[in-house]
């Protein structure tokens, strides 16, 4: 059924369903398997496992935020094509969410306890960005993906050498985040002002500091 033919109530229920799937663990069947070359679970000591779990919890939270941002932008976008593109991007990001969730479970850990809060805050930010203009909204996506790529590369450098499993997952996510960035730029994403970029970076750092532990 085409989205255009859905009623407002249908859209509302679909939105609630997507929001709940972003915040409730194991509610998304992944469309792609973990991007790993074998099924061996690396052996980590307690300190290493805790550190990797902290990093993966940050990355899982980043994916929850990506869901919130894309859903918020789709909610307020004025242009039907942009709305569809944001829904499509959110769907593509679901695999990343599931991969991080899976690795966290393998490490005997859990997503951030503030997951619902991260989602709601990101949805609000996305809705504001979407309401400003298509160019700003796409520029916001491009900048977000660039910052996500930076922290993925930082995390890859922090992983214990034997944890090739986490490394392969994060490396595949990084490739795809950079692709999302390029698509947003190709579709007209505008360069954001330094003050907006710094504010985004500050918020991302606050999220990372919290999600690592909680
Ligand atoms: Fe992602
Ligand atoms: Fe992405």
Automatic annotation (TrEMBL):
GO terms for cellular component: plasma membrane. It is a peripheral membrane protein. InterPro entries: COQ7_proteobact, Ferritin-like, Ferritin-like_SF, Ubq_synth_Coq7. Its main location: membrane. Pfam families: COQ7. Its cofactor is Fe cation. The keyword Iron applies. It is found in: Cell membrane. Pathway: Cofactor biosynthesis; ubiquinone biosynthesis. Its EC number is 1.14.99.60. Fe cation 1 binds at residues 63, 93, 96, 177. Belongs to the COQ7 family. This is 3-demethoxyubiquinol 3-hydroxylase. The gene is coq7.
């Amino acid at each position: 059924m085409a989205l255009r033919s859905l009623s407002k109530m249908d859209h509302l229920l679909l939105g609630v369903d997507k929001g709940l799937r972003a915040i409730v663990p194991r509610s998304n069947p992944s469309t792609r398997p973990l991007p790993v070359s074998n099924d061996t679970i690396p052996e980590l000591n307690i300190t290493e496992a805790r550190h990797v779990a902290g990093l993966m919890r940050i990355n899982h939270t980043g994916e929850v935020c990506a869901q919130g941002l894309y859903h918020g932008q789709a909610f307020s976008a004025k242009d039907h094509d942009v709305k569809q593109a944001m829904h499509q991007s959110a769907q593509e990001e679901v695999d990343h969410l599931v991969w991080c969730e899976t690795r966290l479970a393998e490490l005997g850990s859990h997503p951030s306890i503030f997951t619902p809060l991260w989602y709601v805050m990101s949805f609000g930010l996305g809705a504001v960005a979407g309401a400003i203009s298509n160019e700003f909204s796409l520029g916001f996506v491009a900048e977000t993906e660039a910052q996500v790529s930076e922290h993925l590369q930082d995390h890859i450098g922090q992983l214990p050498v034997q944890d090739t499993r986490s490394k392969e997952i994060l490396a595949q996510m990084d490739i795809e985040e950079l692709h999302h960035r390029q698509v947003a730029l190709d579709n007209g994403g505008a360069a954001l002002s330094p003050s907006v970029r710094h504010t985004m970076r500050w918020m991302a750092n606050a999220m990372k500091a919290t999600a690592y532990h909680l």
